[in-house]
Amino acid sequence: MDASVTPASLFLRSPTLPLVVMLLVVPTVAVLQFRAIALVTSLGLLAVVVAGRRVTGAWPWPRIGPVVWAALAIGAWTMVSAAWAPDPMRALGTGLRFGGFVLLAAAAARAMAAEPGERMALVARCLVIGLAIGIALAAADHLSGNAIRAAVRGLREVPVWLFFGLKSAVAVIAVLLPVAAAWPGLRWWWRVALVVAGLAASVLLPAESAKIAAFAGILALGAAWLLGRWAGRLIGVGAAVVVLVAPLLTGAVLPRLPGLEAIQPSAAHRILIWDFAIQRIAEKPVLGWGGESARAIPGGTALFDRATLDRFGLTSDASRAWFARPPAQRLPLHTHNAALQVWLELGAVGAVLAAALLAALGFAAARLGPGAVGAYGAALVVGMLSYGIWQEWWIGMLLLLAVAIQGIQAPRSSET
User: Fold this and answer.
1) Residue 263 lies in a domain
2) 361 occurs within a structural domain
């Protein structure tokens, strides 16, 4: 070996370096400006692939396992749906970007599979450090009245809407927390402290669905410790079944709900959105309305009529006023439920593909260990209660986490 080639110089050229940098900075980015995660993860995963090429002399072509096949099939079907989507170019572009993002992450995972196993401890350590920094920064911003994020945006006064911006940070904390807690290199008291801090931050910050996700992730982690691989498999199969029956299940449950006056208006709004979505799903149940059509569904920009509010018990003056606001549309951009959005946009065909993906992810998580199962459980809750399925920052976050988990748990495997 050339005397000028040192372990430090090898590391600086390795795929591990961009991965650990992403793990260190992404939780902070999630607090300060979460949409930038899409750019950070795109460039970072590309850097992992290029570094893999530089180290081995060959491009780390993705190995196509069940998870990648199912994800690519969803991207391809989204592109096909451009033939009947209200915005064909948006559907085509979304499917193409989604498939490309998945292939990029699979190539990055292949590059990391060739890395020495001893570097994986550094990957796990940086994930823990990045998460701890993100938790502390999110709590500090909240306790300062969001002054930190206002300063980053160059705002002299803190606008009211900035208060809700931390929900994305809580979602990131929720999916990272089980992986960090499951790392064997962390002493038990640090695990307890990290979990307590993460759950406390999720309770403190304004993000109801992400709060549920944080606790769900830790519960899934505990189930994986108790049940072994069966926990991930059962969660994956259960999620697949929920997707397949989502319109029927939602349609059966919603009429039986008690009056919604007792819950937060934002939660009641989501229930009404789901009610509207299943009505539109019934109109095109097989093929759906087309990729990215949720933002263009007929009637979606209208407000809920009095009859609908009465049907759900939203009869108080406060509820009438809340649902009279322009943002309280029947379908603002997406359904806030991944299963219903898949059915709405991609129909039964898309639902079958999504169910296959979720089942494959559950089995992959079971193989990779309790931390992966916990992250999968948390991500499922976020998907079923919060973000749209095509939000690139969230896709990027999950793909980064998948590459990191595979590196930490299975450094000699390249299947994604």
Assistant:
1) no
2) yes
